[in-house]
Amino acid sequence: MYLYSLTLQRATGVVCAVNGSFVGGKTQEIVVARGKTLELLRPDEAGRIQILHSVEVFGAIRSLAQFRLTGSQKDYLVVGSDSGRLVILEYNVAAARFDKVHQETFGKSGCRRIVPGEYLAVDPKGRAVMVAACEKQKLVYVLNRDAAARLTISSPLEAHKSHVICYSVTGIDCGFDNPIFAAVELDYSEADLDPTGQAAADAQKHLTFYELDLGLNHVSRKWSEPVDNGANLLVTVPGGGDGPGGVLVCAENFVIYKNQGHPDVRAVIPRRDDLPAERGVLVVSAATHRQKSLFFFLLQTEYGDIFKVTLDHEGGERVKELKIKYFDTIPVTSAMCVLRTGFLFAASEFGNHALYQFQSIGDGPDVEASSTTLMETEEGFQPVFFQPRPLKNLLRIDQVESLMPIMDMKVTNLFEEETPQVFTLCGRGPRSSLRILRPGLAISEMAVSQLPGTPSAVWTVKKNVNDEFDAYIVVSFTNATLVLSIGETVEEVSDSGFLDTTPSLAVSLLGEDSLMQVHPNGIRHIREDGRINEWKTPGKKTIVKVGSNRQQVVIALSGGELIYFEMDITGQLMEVEKHEMPGDVACLDIAPVPEGRQRSRFLAVGSYDNTIRILSLDPDDCMQILSVQSVSSPPESLLLLEVKASTGGEDGADHPASVFLNAGLQNGVLFRTVVDMVTGQLSDTRSRFLGLKPPKLFSAMVRGRQAMLCLSSRPWLGYIHQGRFLLTPLSYETLEYASSFSSDQCAEGVVAVAGEALRVFTIERLGETFNETVIPLRYTPRKFVLVPKKKHLVIIESDQGAFTAQEREENKKVFFEATGIGENGTANNGDQMENGGGDNDEEKDPLSDEQYGYPKAVSDKWVSCIRVLDPRTGETTSILELQDNEAAFSVCTVNFHDKEHGTLLAVGTAKGLQFLPRKSLIGGFIHIYRFIDDGKGLELLHKTQVDGVPLALCQFQGRLLAGIGPVLRLYELGKKRLLRKCENKLFPNTIMSIHTYRDRIYVGDIQESFHYCKYRRDENQLYVFADDSVPRWLTAAHHIDFDTVAGADKFGNIFFARLPQDVSDEIEEDPTGGKIKWEQGKLNGAPNKVEEIVQFHIGDVVTCLQKASLIPGGGECLIYGTVMGSLGAMLPFTSREDVDFFSHLEMHIRQEHPPLCGRDHMAYRSAYFPVKDVIDGDLCEQFPSLTPDLQRKIADELDRTPGEILKKLEDIRNKII
Amino acid sequence: MQASDRFNINSQLEHLQAKYVGTGHADLNRFEWAVNIQRDSYASYIGHYPILGYFALAENESIGRERYNFMQKMLLPCGLPPEREED
Question: Do A780 and B60 touch (CB under 8 A)?
Answer without folding.
Answer: yes
